[in-house]
Design goal:
Layout (H helix, E strand, L loop, with lengths): L5 E9 L12 E9 L9 E9 L26 E11 L9 E7 L3 E4 L10 E3 L16 H13 L7 E4 L7 H10 L3 E6 L2 H9 L5 E4 L6 H8 L4 E6 L4 H6 L3 E9 L18 H5 L3 E4 L9 H13 L7 E5 L4 H7 L8 E5 L4
Parallel strand pairs: 8-9, 8-11, 9-10, 11-12, 12-13, 14-15
Antiparallel strand pairs: 1-2, 3-4, 3-6, 3-15, 4-5, 5-7
This protein binds NADP nicotinamide-adenine-dinucleotide phosphate.
The site of NADP nicotinamide-adenine-dinucleotide phosphate has 31 residues, from helix 1 and strand 15.
Length: about 350
């Protein structure tokens, strides 16, 4: 293929703003043309996308009113999210042809990326370790895994022996947060939405206890059973009724690190939370978390977690679908829990 030639480029196009649960039909498979050379004199990069990451926050970009920290998607343009890519051409001094990178890219076979300093949508990190599956940079060694690290160590203020509860515990973030907590010597309980996931939590990730929240008639009873002495740390991924049930079960000076609230993302009116006075009674600290504020810690996260992987101290479950056309179903599936582990879409093998 000659340098500046255009190639066809399959894309997943965001159709229009969404209310309620997202549907596959909110995204359309389309095809366009893209040159594989960056424009003369520009600092842009052309990448071939290998893996795409399905993340719950993508739902908030489908709202007409943006979530406040990131813009909404543009109807008619490709979905944009985290992925793993290979540099095809670069006008940027930090990247060269052949580099493997992870960061924000388009849901398409090839993307032209423009990196602007300080733009959270311009995150692009060169991949240092290739002795692990490259797909790990969508999850375990990418945004989800790094969120688990930064939220657990920076916000949860963990101590050995703490009683730790993690909701959506088998997902991209939760499975790693739980394993960090175990490695610190905490007592760790996770909840998830199927018996298969509960089994993985206990038998693959070494959680002390786990329960299927969909089979518990009373979440308060389930939490009391798992934490007769109460919870020191709640790693919050779910919100709503789960948060309400956790609050009265917190111990004095407990910490609630709010990583996400997936149960609320598709509701037009968020659910009310009734037990907030427990925060006063138990002097609980509740703090929100945003991963992009912590990127300066990525190198130390990478070294620690890569070491743990090599030593066999950390395991990671991925749910991998082949083909960009499977992306919409995979993304929508996050909101019914159809993913078992981190949801990844393969666009191309290297
Ligand atoms: P994930 O767990 O891999 O996928 C989402 C899971 O959420 C589903 O598999 C499902 O598992 C569960 N879920 C879906 N709807 C639910 C509901 N109504 N009630 C309870 N559980 C529900 O996703 P992830 O990437 O690890 O993300 C987990 C949380 O972290 C999300 O809230 C996400 O927004 C948040 N997050 C925040 C940041 C940040 O910077 N603040 C960064 C990354 C992620 P079940 O089968 O268990 O229901």
């Amino acid at each position: 293929m000659a340098g500046g030639d255009e190639v066809s480029n399959k894309q997943i196009i965001f159709k229009d703003f969404v209310t309620g649960f997202p549907k596959e039909s909110d995204m359309i498979l389309s095809s366009s043309k893209i040159p594989l050379k960056v424009p003369q004199g520009s600092k842009a990069i052309v990448v071939k996308n290998l893996y795409l990451s399905c993340d719950p926050y993508l739902r908030s970009r489908m709202n007409r009113i943006p979530p406040g920290y990131i813009p909404s998607f543009t109807p008619g343009s490709p979905i944009v999210g985290f992925g793993v890519s290979k540099v095809i051409d670069s006008g940027h001094p930090d990247f060269k042809k052949g580099d493997l990178v992870w960061g924000v890219t388009g849901w398409e076979e090839y993307s032209l990326l423009t990196l602007t300093d300080g733009d959270i949508l311009a995150t692009l990190i060169k991949i240092k370790y290739t002795d692990v599956p490259l797909s790990y940079y969508t999850g375990l060694l990418g945004m989800a895994g790094f969120s688990a690290y930064a939220c657990f160590y920076e916000i949860c203020a963990p101590k050995k022996g703490d009683y730790v509860y993690i909701s959506a515990a088998s997902g991209g973030v939760g499975q790693l947060a739980g394993q960090y907590a175990k490695l610190m010597g905490c007592y760790v309980v996770g909840s998830a939405g199927s018996n298969e996931k509960v089994n993985i939590l206990k038998n693959k990730f070494g959680f002390d206890e786990a329960f299927n929240y969909k089979e518990e008639p009373d979440l308060n009873v389930a939490l009391k059973r798992c934490f007769p002495e109460g919870i020191d740390i709640y790693f919050e991924n779910v919100g709503g009724q789960m948060l309400d049930a956790v609050l009265p079960n917190m111990r004095e000076h407990g910490r609630i690190a709010v990583c996400g609230m997936i149960s609320q993302y598709n509701l037009e009116k968020p659910e009310g939370v009734h037990n907030l006075f427990s925060i006063v009674v138990k002097r609980v600290r509740m703090e929100g978390f945003m991963v992009f504020e912590h990127y300066h810690l990525y190198p130390q996260f990478l070294e620690l977690t890569h070491q743990y992987i090599k030593e066999g101290k950390i395991f990671y479950v991925e749910d991998i679908v082949e083909g960009i056309e499977k992306g919409p179903a995979a993304l929508v599936g996050l909101f019914t829990g159809s993913n078992v582990g981190k949801q990844v879409v393969v666009v191309a093998h290297e």
